[in-house]
Amino acid sequence: MDYTFKTEGLYRRFKSGSETVVALNDVNIEIPKNKLSILRGPSGSGKTTLINILGALDRPSEGKVFLEDVEITKMSDVRRDAIRRTKCGFIFQSVALMSNMTAFENVDFGLRIAGSNKSRKKRAEECLKQVGLAKRMTHRPQELSGGEQQRVAIARAISHRPQVLFADEPTAELDTQTGLQVVRLFKALVEQEGITVVMTTHDVNMMEVADYVFNLEDGVVLDGQQR
C-alpha cells in the first residue's frame, strides 16, 4: 500500500501536575495515499494529538513520522513550518474565518499566508466554485450557514493545492445531513484532486463515506479497516 504518512513507535506524553499522561502509546500506522482516512474514537482517545503530530504542529515524545519516505520528526522548526505551509491544509471544528472578510477574501488571505502571489483571484474563485459557493463569494461568515462557513474553510485549506488535508472534528457543530455533505466533499476532493484527507470524528454516521477507518482508544490504534 502506498502511504502518505507512516509512524513508527510513536509516543506522546504530557505532564499533568506530578503525573504523566500518555496521549499516544506506541502508535504504528500507515495513512494510505490519495484516500479519505478517518481517525475514530471518543474524546481523549488521542485523535487530535495524532493529527497534530502528523501535521508537524507538534513533536512526539518518542518515535518517528515519515511523510512519504522523508522523516519529518527531527527536522528543524523552519523546515517543518515549510512543510505545513506548502504540503498541508488544516480544517478545525471552529472554522476560524475572519469575520470582517468575505468568503472570497478569506480564501485569498489563506493563499497569501501560503506565499502564493500568482493568479490568487482565479484560484480563490476556482476553490469556492469547487465547494459549491460560486454565488456566495461576497458574503461574510455571519451571512452564511454553518455548513457554508465550513465549506469556505475547506476552500481556504485547499487553495494552495496541499498534498494532505487534515480535518479535526469538522462536522462536530453541524447536523448529520450537513456533516455528511461536508465529508462527501472531502471524498470528491480525494477523487478529483488526488488529495490525502485525514479526518477525526466520533460520529458513526460519517464512517460510510470513508475509505479507511482507524479506531483509537486511550492513545492506542486498535485497528485499521478498509471500507
Main sheet, how many strands, which sense, barrel?
6 strands, mixed
| CATH overall fold name | Rossmann fold
Give the ordered list of helices and strands: EEEEHEEHEHHHEHEEE
Strand order of the largest sheet: 7-8-9-4-10-11
Helix segment count? 6
Instruction: Indicate the CATH architecture.
Output: 3-Layer(aba) Sandwich
Q: What is the global morphology? A: globular
How much helicity do the residues have? 25-40%
Class in CATH?
Alpha Beta
The fraction of residues in strands falls at 25-35%
CA radius of gyration: 17 Å
CATH superfamily label: P-loop containing nucleotide triphosphate hydrolases
Number of discrete domains: 1
Main structural class: alpha/beta
State the end-to-end CA separation: 15 Å
Structural notes for this entry:
The protein has 227 residues and is an alpha/beta fold. It has one domain: P-loop containing nucleotide triphosphate hydrolases (Rossmann fold, 3-Layer(aba) Sandwich). The chain contains six helices and eleven strands. The strands form two sheets. Strands 7-8-9-4-10-11 form a six-stranded mixed sheet, sandwiched between helices. Strand 8, helix 6 and strand 9 form a beta-alpha-beta unit. Helix 3 runs parallel beside helix 5. The model has no long low-confidence stretch (mean pLDDT 91).
